[in-house]
Amino acid sequence: MIELAGTASLADVVAVADGAAVRVPDAVVEAVGRAHAAAHRLSQEVPTYGRTTGVGANKSAVVDDDAHGLRLLRSHAVDAGEELPARAVRAMLAVRLNQLCVTGSGVAPAVLRALERMLNENALPTVRAFASIGTGDLGALAGTALTLMGERPATGPLEPMAPWSRDSALPFMSSSALTIGRTCLVVDALDRLDRAAAVVYALSFRGLDGNPSVLSPAAVRAVAAPGVGAVAERTRRLLGAAAGPAGPAAAPAARIQDAYGLRAFPISQGAFTHALGALNEQAGRLLGTAQENPLFDLAGEAVVHHGAFHQVALGLALDGCALALAQTGPLVMSRIGMLNEPRFTGLRPFLAAGQEGASGLMMIEYVAAGALAELRASAQPASLGSVVLSRGAEEDASFASQAVVQGERAVAAYRSLLACELVGAVRLLRQRGVGLPAGPLRDALDLAGALPAEDTDRDLRGDLEIARALLDGLARV
User: Is the preceding omega at residue 294 within 30 degrees of 0, hence cis?
Assistant: First the structure.
């Protein structure tokens, strides 16, 4: 059971996305109820966007009937494209429920209990791919409201709410909860792959007799960049004595200076680790922040009209993380090339076995190149886009919602890219008969024992599928 009270963590959102039940404390619901009453009073005294006016280019139109809220929800519940997976929808609902626990929206407290039931009964709204531009996930959340009221079918039985008033309509959908929720899932997946990448690198490093001086504290200090120290320390722990306190002289290296695939890993991966940390922090800040427009400043007795929903920082953090991830790809390709090259392995080309001219892992490199191409395409900055909407009332967009879609694509591509290296690293260690001492890297190799041992030419699709699945386990080594 996950308690949502405005203080949820990224891990909480992931847990709810994966099916955990939720609970909102009674005290929080009572506080939201008091804020709802105060917001209602303020909106009667001050012209209030979306409550006493229209929205978008209709913001100057005066509205004085309560059915305005239902009209807003029905008109804004528009989306198109493929249905999003239930996991993404649950992440959206978890984020929105947690945000609403922070008094500022003025929403009715009954909405919190209804969202709680929707999650716990797993009776979800249907959300489609196209609607958001990074200034609020209006279509997805308006559709959620209609589902809560029974105007749209849920994925399971759900007791419908009474029709909403204008006090709750715009406040509920004035959020980027879908984009933020999906970002949480992307961060969680990339964090696991980041840790798995160090394990896969360490296996390749050991099989290729890499020079450990690149992991030394002196080398790390010379980089003068964030993230490098954490990656180097993580890799030293995996390699154990090969990069221990005795220094590089403690272990033999095959080369005075390695190719970049081995030599620059801490630098390249460190940049990604740092960018991922920045994305994690920005997503975490948005989980428990009231960004509704208008915002009710109850302490100051004010209705605040603003543009805080413009998700520039989140879009840039997503773009930065995707760019940092993409620049790690060529070094993965470098290591795959080394694994296939007799000059580095002392073995047959492509780690082949059987008859002369066997292809071995030749096509694994082609698959990896395809994954790298997708990784690069996903790194095209979404923040460079712009659009003018609603008769010019909204003249820009952060496109953070597009950036998170590209982040999801990057996750899939990176998983395949690392899987290609893992298949080659394990085959190299096996063919060389390298014995690893007890420790985390030996644990990783034992886990990778699930990969087939047959090296003669055959269909390798299954090997890559096994390797993709192994990465989450390697992340825990």
Answer: yes
413-469 tens-digit pLDDT: 999 999 999 999 999 999 999 999 999 999 999 999 999 999 999 999 999 999 999
In this structure, what CATH number is given to the domain that contains residue 314? 1.20.200.10
Same-domain check for residues 266 and 389:
yes
Q: Which long-range contacts (CB under 8 A, 24 or more apart) does 15-21 make?
A: 16/90, 16/91, 16/93, 16/94, 16/119, 17/87, 17/88, 17/90, 17/91, 17/94, 17/181, 17/184, 17/185, 18/87, 18/90, 19/90, 19/122, 21/119, 21/120
Helix (H) or strand (E) holding 449: none
Does 129 lie in the same domain as 275? no
Residue 229 structural domain: 183-289+308-475
Mean pLDDT for all residues in the chain: 94
pTM above 0.90, yes or no: yes
Total structural domains in the chain? 2
What secondary structure letter does DSSP report for 470?
H
pLDDT tens digits for range 61-85? 888 888 888 999 999 999 999 999 9
Same domain, 51 and 197: no
Closest CA to 141 of 92, 94, 189: 92
Residue 301 lies in a domain: no
Domain-located, residue 303: no
